[in-house]
Amino acid sequence: MGPLQGIKILDLSRILAGPWATQLLADYGADVWKIERPGVGDDTRHWGPPFLKDRDGVETTESAYFLSTNRGKRSLVLDITAEPGQAAIRKLVVEADILVENYKVGGLAKYGLDYDSLAKLNPQLIYCSITGFGQTGPDASLAGYDAMVQARGGLMSITGEPDGVPGAGPQKVGVAVADLMAGMYAVSAILAALHHRDKTGQGQQIDIGLLDTQVAWLANQNMNYLVGGVAPSRQGTAHPNIVPYQALPTRDGFIMLAVGNDRQFSACCEVLGEPGLVSDPRFLTNRLRVEYRDQLIPLLESCFKTKTTAEWSQLLGQVKVPCGPINTLAEVFDDRQIKARQMQFDLPHPVAGTVPQVANPVKFSATPIVYPLAPPLLGADTESVLKSLLDD
């Protein structure tokens, strides 16, 4: 079984950031109790189309969105606004190691389900709160949504085509990366808190804000600004610190070229039939290539247009210059490496027969990941889980 076998998680989160974190922990072997609203469930159950089809090809109410982030969990329908639901949560808390929630700041206090209240029942509880803006600060009470956080946190200012070219303007990323990264930070924080608890016996509350995490993971772009004093701008597919490192047009499409050092640049120019570019004083080093980016890129574009993406990928691959096609998802899941790594698989599903899933990318040597449960039907485990607690 997984490395977190025996760990119990009470999941009061909805949408994406919290469920992404708890799905990852479930993949690692934790037992996750997902608490959902009666009759409605997690909002994302209804975020479609597309919806899963049953064995007869009839569309169900299980959305692809929900199916992407809730495998390995048990669904319990509980009304936490009523005393019976609150009492059930308290019973679960006594048994749980971790609680994950993403209600507005103070939203669970009125039900007696806040950290201070529940820590009295289980002092070893690790209570992870994921909100838009964290538990403190002037905007702590505001709701947070991924798109607004991508915008406010600076990501959209560096994503999209630069001003003055076709399609210019800020863009959000094609998936909810602010939510996903908050979920990933939550997982690492929870595992760190588990380690601390193992040494001390002490639980704690973890405070994660989407805006904080969005700012934190801008990495080199943050430091480009803090060190250089100039706010980075949108550069399309280009890299702010490395040249050439961007998508270039080919005879039949585009290729993503990722030249990371001078050797690779020299090899690239040899393959292109332009060895003179290597000795050109404007392009001798990466620093110079960044400075003279606008002069180098048009020269490379004219070269790349002479062959197809596949031809350039093969030729450049032979001399170890990183590059590749810009795949659609259909091409991604048909990719030989993705297939070899078994990144797509199916799980048994009570209505559809099977449901497709995307594998966890982590490969453990001693505790390989297993996937015992498909994303659950609403309330499928309420009776069995609560009955086991009452029997105990």
What does this structure look like?
A hairpin with a 3-residue loop joins strand 12 and strand 13. The protein has 16 helices and 13 strands. The chain starts with 7 loop residues before the first strand and ends with a helix. The chain is α/β, with parallel strands linked by helices and 392 residues long. The longest helix has 24 residues, at 177-200. The mean pLDDT is 97. Helix 1 packs across helix 6 and helix 6 packs across helix 7. The strands form four sheets. A six-stranded parallel sheet has the order 5-2-1-6-7-8, with helices on both faces. Strands 9-10-11 form a three-stranded antiparallel sheet, covered by helices on one side.
CATH architecture verdict of the largest domain: 3-Layer(aba) Sandwich
Please state the average pLDDT score.
97
The class by helix and strand makeup works out as alpha/beta
Q: How many domain modules?
A: 2
**Quaternary state of the chains:** single chain
CATH class of the largest domain: Alpha Beta
**Sheet with the most strands: spatial strand order:** 5-2-1-6-7-8
